[in-house]
Amino acid sequence: xxxxxxxxxxxxxxxxxxxxxxxxxxxxxxxxxxxxxxxxxxxxxxxxxxxxxxxxxxxxxxxxxxxxxxxxxxxxxxxxxxxxxxxxxxxxxxxxxxxxxxxxxxxxxxxxxxxxxxxxxxxxxxxxxxxxxxxxxxxxxxxxxxxxxxxxxxxxxxxxxxxxxxxxxxxxxxxxxxxxxxxxxxxxxxxxxxxxxxxxxxxxxxxxxxxxxxxxxxxxxxxxxxxxxxxxxxxxxxxxxxxxxxxxxxxxxxxxxxxxxxxxxxxxxxxxxxxxxxxxxxxxxxxxxxxxxxxxxxxxxxxxxxxxxxxxxxxxxxxxxxxxxxxxxxxxxxxxxxxxxxxxxxxxxxxxxxxxxxxxxxxxxxxxxxxxxxxxxxxxxxxxxxxxxxxxxxx
Amino acid sequence: xxxxxxxxxxxxxxxxxxxxxxxxxxxxxxxxxxxxxxxxxxxxxxxxxxxxxxxxxxxxxxxxxxxxxxxxxxxxxxxxxxxxxxxxxxxxxxxxxxxxxxxxxxxxxxxxxxxxxxxxxxxxxxxxxxxxxxxxxxxxxxxxxxx
Lengths: 395, 147
Known about the structure:
The complex is a heterodimer. By secondary structure, chain A is an alpha/beta fold. Helices cover 38% and strands 13% of the residues of chain A. Chain A has helices at residues 19-25, 41-61, 74-88, 104-115, 133-139, 162-173, 196-199, 248-263, 265-286, 313-322, 342-346, 368-388; strands at residues 4-8, 68-71, 95-99, 119-123, 144-148, 180-184, 203-207, 218-222, 291-292, 303-307, 325-326, 357-361. A seven-stranded mixed sheet of chain A has the order 2-8-7-6-5-3-4, with helices on both faces. In chain A, strands 9-10-12 form a three-stranded antiparallel sheet. A two-stranded parallel ribbon of chain A has the order 1-11. Chain A is globular. The N and C termini of chain A lie far apart (50 Å). The model of chain A has no long low-confidence stretch (mean pLDDT 95). The A-B interface holds A 1-8, 310-312, 314-315, 318-319, 322, 331-334, 336, 338, 340, 351-352, 355, 365, 367, 369-370, 373, 387-391, 393-395 and B 1-6, 24-25, 27, 30, 32, 34, 42, 44, 48-49, 51-55, 73-78, 80-81, 120-121, 124-125.
């Protein structure tokens, strides 16, 4: 039987489920199918597994087990954080600050709040995609109830100064509770410290699908004094904040994935950063006129986001796909709405370069050989597309 | 890198038709070396800011008024590349297209020959006919000057 070689370099889109994580999940699909809300033995056993998962996550985040709310995805966590805090606290104000490079799960939740009468202000970023802490503080008014800034950007990999923002904010607030601070940490998990004691955020979103866990499960850390309205109603699970029978196999998988990835975080971040630097060096050799998007140092260790002049992103992705290499692009032509990525617009990237962007995100299994293979193939693809481009000849 | 054995659900669901795929991976009539090429007419459409741009070079048989060669270069996505390639085939096949007809070639005709395109790709990426029309007009102007 013929086998095909492939190279997956899109870990920022999603990661494969780790076999150890899957093994932990399997019993809960099969014998241990009880509902945690039932009083009898299988129900109690399910409840124990649920509690244990919550405790394991709480120990990674350094929070109370009751501060962990399980959800159905990172998107749902973001929705719950934004919609839930705004609606629950609207008597304290109607002003919300979100960064202009947030994930669509946050952006679209904010748009919904605008329709409900809230005033949303978008925090600008610099050319590297970074917010300015003083600029954020300057935008706070007496009616600001929530600030949401992602921990690390999913496209260009820029790491935002969340800790600095939280510290400045707590100084600014004094003894007041508002504004609350939410961060989307879906991309940060596995590479950046997640302890809420250090980060000093009030709310933090995370999910399974970026940390070698299952898709379709997420969590929201909510500091216990933060008022939150649910967005899903029913049987009052998760303290009434997220009704619906708990998805136990996925919750067990999420906790295992988070504990696992946290235990190897420092080593893996160092390993991947070295590879990334090597890859970047080699890329600069084969495409000297490429532009690196995002911050040069303050970026996720596994992220490379570049713009390649004279050629278009979808074509690059499809030719690489044909060579068994999987990466992604922010090109308008590859998106459903034909809009160029809002992140590239927010960093005010040269319009000539917006169509030729490429995101390469490394993962646990990526090796130096993989990087070499990628460089060889990308070099061929770029040469080929440039030999076809009207922008590389004088017309 | 990993090895995966082929499975029964081998990925076949490509965004584009097999014909688009063929023309994207094996484009016909590309002008690789423009320096040595003497065209009778050149036309450009689109812009890099919009994400799609085509340049078309044609040679014309003056006696018969037909296009004998249609070369091109395209910046854009797979459907932009595939549709320009298909257009270049359409205007040069069967002894070449009469220039009056070439000026009127429609995007619909190109899309039909491609076996269809996703809706959202239809309007933005099929621009080759515009570049072709400009190339023919360029030829006509050049020709008027010469004779």
